[in-house]
């Protein structure tokens, strides 16, 4: 099992397990160009966009077994796309990237495609991102301002309304307030007025690409300056910048456990657990260091679109773990029982996973753990995950005969 040593702490070392990634190449997906955004829809299907070449499919979906592509011959009007979004009604929205053949965005209802452009009233031809307002209207971030779409008509916002800069991402927060990451700072919109935040207020830069609200209600902004990288957290009162993120950031998302993922322009992925940052790159199993989309699937795995494919990350197997040379399991291979020997790691819980990361068994431990029964398991490779009372983990691979 390949491991990357990250930090030394006394006799322990922190490692990430490279086997925690499952990758799908561009060839697997059926796309001939660099990937862009990604979502996981309500049915746990993946949808990914791309900067496809002329006449080839620019959108692909994955149902867990098969990839399917969509292009001009399938009804999609363009081939170069940016953002992808699913509304509460189930419709899929795809932003177009100043395509030579099409502009604006298109909606796919599962059967037919509908294209909307500046001719229909959209603010700009290049669409970055979407969000849904509390009343079901769709916010659309374009290169020429913000549009609000009620399914028929557009209302546009720009400098005359108090919004400067090009919106790159729009977010509707838990209270219904609209947030924007733009080329000229961060903005909120309360339905009447825009409020602007800049480096003067504490942002790392005014050149922003991503905005995200975490489970604690904090807002995160990803800067897009290569010579001034970092992310900023806003708790409603104070701005705090984290320079541990050493790349321009295109995407920010949280998982169901509250970990926050920052997709870098060229330096891979940064994960924040509330205390520490972990950086993952191609060396750890990512399909590319250029991250474009981030989403969580129904199994709790994180899915990333990169320039070179889609990477599915199993946090259970990829979690930072303690590599303790004094923690021993034997025999290996084993038949029915595996014994444990350790002097300095008190196990409070253990779990068994199959080679694909599916949970087989989990059990609390209220006394010193000296052995684990493998009875009932079929022959094969398994992962044993041991956790202590401080939440630190050790993972070992075992072969069951």
UniProtKB/TrEMBL annotation:
Gene3D superfamilies assigned: YVTN repeat-like/Quinoprotein amine dehydrogenase
Keywords in alphabetical order: Signal
Signal peptide: 1-18
Keyword Lipid metabolism among UniProt keywords: no
InterPro entries, per database record: Secre_tail, WD40/YVTN_repeat-like_dom_sf
Domain Secretion system C-terminal sorting, first and last residues per copy: 329-399
Protein name: Putative secreted protein (Por secretion system target)
Lineage: Bacteria, Pseudomonadati, Bacteroidota, Flavobacteriia, Flavobacteriales
């Amino acid at each position: 099992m390949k491991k990357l040593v990250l930090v030394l702490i006394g006799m322990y070392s922190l490692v990430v397990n490279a086997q925690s990634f499952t990758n799908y190449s561009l060839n697997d997906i059926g796309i001939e160009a660099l990937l862009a955004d990604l979502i996981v829809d309500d049915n746990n299907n993946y949808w990914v966009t791309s900067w496809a070449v002329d006449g080839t499919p620019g959108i692909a979906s994955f149902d867990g077994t098969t990839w399917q592509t969509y292009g001009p011959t399938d009804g999609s009007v363009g081939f170069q796309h940016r953002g992808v979004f699913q509304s509460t009604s189930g419709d899929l929205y795809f932003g177009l990237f100043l395509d030579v053949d099409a502009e604006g965005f298109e909606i796919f209802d599962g059967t037919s495609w509908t294209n909307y452009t500046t001719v229909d009233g959209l603010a700009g031809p290049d669409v970055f991102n979407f969000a849904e307002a509390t009343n079901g209207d769709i916010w659309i971030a374009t290169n020429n301002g913000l549009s609000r779409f009620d399914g028929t008509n557009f209302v546009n916002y720009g400098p005359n309304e108090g919004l400067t800069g090009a919106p790159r991402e729009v977010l509707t927060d838990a209270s219904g307030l609209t947030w924007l990451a733009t080329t000229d700072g961060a903005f909120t919109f309360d339905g009447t007025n825009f409020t602007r935040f800049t480096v003067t207020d504490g942002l790392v830069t005014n050149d922003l690409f991503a905005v995200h609200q975490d489970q604690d209600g904090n807002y995160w902004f990803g800067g897009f300056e290569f010579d001034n990288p970092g992310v900023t957290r806003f708790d409603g009162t104070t701005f705090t910048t984290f320079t541990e993120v050493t790349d321009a950031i295109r995407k920010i998302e949280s998982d169901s456990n509250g970990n926050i993922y920052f997709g870098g322009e060229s330096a891979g992925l940064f994960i924040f657990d509330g205390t520490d940052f972990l950086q993952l790159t191609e060396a750890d199993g990512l399909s590319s260091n250029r991250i474009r989309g981030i989403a969580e699937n129904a199994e709790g795995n994180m899915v990333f679109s990169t320039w070179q494919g889609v990477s599915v990350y199993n946090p259970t197997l990829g979690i930072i773990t303690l590599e303790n040379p004094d923690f021993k399991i034997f025999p290996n291979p084993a038949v029915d029982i595996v014994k444990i020997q350790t002097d300095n790691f008190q196990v409070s819980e253990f779990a068994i996973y199959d080679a694909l990361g599916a949970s087989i068994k989990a059990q609390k431990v209220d006394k010193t753990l000296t052995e684990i029964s493998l009875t009932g398991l079929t022959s094969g490779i398994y992962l044993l995950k041991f956790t202590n009372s401080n939440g630190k983990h050790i993972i070992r691979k075992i072969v069951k005969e």
